[in-house]
Write a structure and sequence with these properties.
Number of helices: 18
Structural class: alpha/beta
Distance between the termini: 47 Å
Amino acid sequence: MKDTMRANILFGREYDEDFYWKVIHACALADDLKSWPKGDMTTIGERGVNISGGQRARLALARTVYLRADIYILDDPLSAVDAHVKHHILEHVLLDTGLLANKLRVFMPLLHGNDSGSILIDGQDISKFGVGDLRPRIGIIPQESTMLNGSFADNLDPLDEFTKDDMWRALEKCHMVDIVKPPENDDLHEVDASNQRVREVRDWEEKWRKASWKMRLFMYVFMRKLRLPEESLLVKTEPLDKMASGGSVQMSDGQKQLFSLCRILMRKRRVLVLDEATANVDTETDRMMQKVMRTEFKDCTVLTIAHRLETIMNSNRVIVIDHGEVVEIGKPQDLLKKENGCFAELARTNDFGSFKL
C-alpha cells in the first residue's frame, strides 16, 4: 500500500498509541523506523521508501497483531526474517510470552502435517496441496470486517475478476441491494442508463479504472479531449461506483459482515471460516446471516467459532472447548440432552433449555 507505515499498520482502525508502539516493538520494526526520515509517518511503496521482503513480512505481521482478534491464522510469518529477528518475534509475538499469548494461533504450514488421518477438500488430501492451491478454497470472515477506502465495486472485487452482474447477484442473495442502491433512486438510474453521453463517460472511466499507471499517463496527456464536459460527470450514478467507506453511505457492523459474505459468495469458496463473525451484530442480522449460510453455502463446509449459541444451533456438529481443551463433540440435539454436559449447561444459562431444532 502506498501510504505511511502507520497507515499500513492501522489499516483504517482507531489509533491506540500505547498498543501501537507495543506492536512496533514486538514485530521488530523499531530500529527500521529510527533509520527513516519521518519515522512511522514515512511513506512506503512506489512513491516512498522501498522496503525489503523481511520488512514487508514484519509489517504484515504488525497489521495482523493490531487487529486484536481472538483467532489468528498465520501463514508462515517467519519465512522472510533472519534468525535474530525470528527469535525476537517468537518471544514477543507468537509464543506464550508474546502479545498473542491469550489468543488461538493457527500456523498455516501446520495444516499440512496432521499426525493421523487426513483432511480432505473436494475429496483431495490437503497435504498434497501447495499453499497457493489451498488459499483459494478457503474463505474467512473475522469478527470485524474491513472496508477499503474505495467504491463498492472495489471492495467487492479488488482484483477485477467479476462483472457488475456477478456483484449484483451476490448483493441480492445477501440482502444488500437496498444498501448499495437505495429504492428511492431507481428512476434516476433508469434515466441515466438511457443517456448516451453518460454511457460514454462510464465507458471512459471503466477503461481508466482498469488501466495501468503508464496507460493512465498516456490517457491523461493524449486523450483528455475525449473526456466529456465536467457537468456530464454529475449525472453518473452507477451505485457500485459510490464510495463504500468514507462516503455518504454508512454501513453498520452487521451490514459490513453481510458485505463480506458477498465477497466470498462470488468466489465460491468450498470452506468457510466464521471467526466470531456475528459477535458485534444484532440478533436480526445474525439470523439473516444464518439464513444466507443455509441457502447459499449449503454445499460448503462451514467452521463457526462463536459464543452466541443461536449462531451454531443449526450446525451438524459442535465442538465445545473449555480452557483450550476439547470437552465435548456431537450434534447439538444430542449434547443438549446430556444432563451434566458443558453444552447443556451453556444452553440453560442462556435460556436455551427448551430450544427446538
